[in-house]
UniProtKB/TrEMBL annotation:
A Gene Ontology BP annotation from the UniProt entry: DNA-templated transcription initiation
Name used for this protein in its record: RNA polymerase sigma-70 factor
Residue intervals of the RNA polymerase sigma factor 70 region 4 type domain: 118-170
InterPro entries recorded: RNA_pol_sigma-70-like, RNA_pol_sigma-70_dom, RNA_pol_sigma70_bacteroid, RNA_pol_sigma70_r2, RNA_pol_sigma70_r4_t2, RNA_pol_sigma_r2, RNA_pol_sigma_r3/r4-like, WH-like_DNA-bd_sf
């Protein structure tokens, strides 16, 4: 657990909404990308992640936290996504469990990470210019949809559409995208 996460947990334990905002800012986008490993719809992924945050806050889950905040949130997204899948019978769950275990393993080889980054950058070249700009702003610069929309003088919905298109095209690189996004 890093210092930033400890500060967020402390604020949440004190009932400070700023802790929820910081948790959201830090983990929302990575959790949405992670949810897309399980489900095909960007809107559904966002709904699932938002439900996790709402439930965490409303049910004061910080008091029951016995693991890192990151692990709790990713496990919650995984469980909710798998419940959705079971309900809709869409995917083979065993394969997804293996991928989750790999994502939660913090002992990633730096050389492998560099190779994966190179692969991602090559795949970025295949995106449309607008989708690539939106993707890079959200992932690499950690910008919010609203800020990207203002910078590019387009609507927030257009930003979401370009981001969803980029994620769909980069589906095979979600692991590296998440590693880049997470602290």
């Amino acid at each position: 657990m890093n210092n930033q996460e400890q500060l967020i947990i402390q604020k949440l334990q004190n009932g400070e909404e700023s802790g929820l905002r910081q948790m959201f800012d830090l983990y929302y986008s990575p959790l949405c990308v992670f949810a897309l490993k399980y489900i095909d719809s960007f809107d559904l992924a966002e709904d699932l992640v938002q439900d996790i945050f709402i439930g965490f806050w409303e049910n004061n889950r910080v008091e029951q936290l016995n693991t890192s905040l990151k692990s709790y949130l990713f496990t919650s997204v995984k469980n909710n996504a798998l419940n959705y899948i079971r309900k809709n019978k869409k995917y083979r769950i065993e394969e997804l469990d293996d991928e989750f275990d790999m994502m939660m393993d913090d002992s990633f080889d730096p050389e492998d990470l560099e190779q994966m980054k190179l692969k991602l950058y090559q795949e970025l070249e295949n995106l449309s210019q607008q989708s690539r700009i939106v993707f890079e702003a959200i992932i690499f610069q950690n910008m919010k949809y609203k800020d990207v929309a203002e910078d590019l003088d387009i609507s927030v919905n257009t930003v979401k559409t370009h981001f969803a298109r980029a994620l769909k095209q980069l589906r095979g690189s979600f692991d590296i995208i998440l590693m880049i996004m997470l602290p």
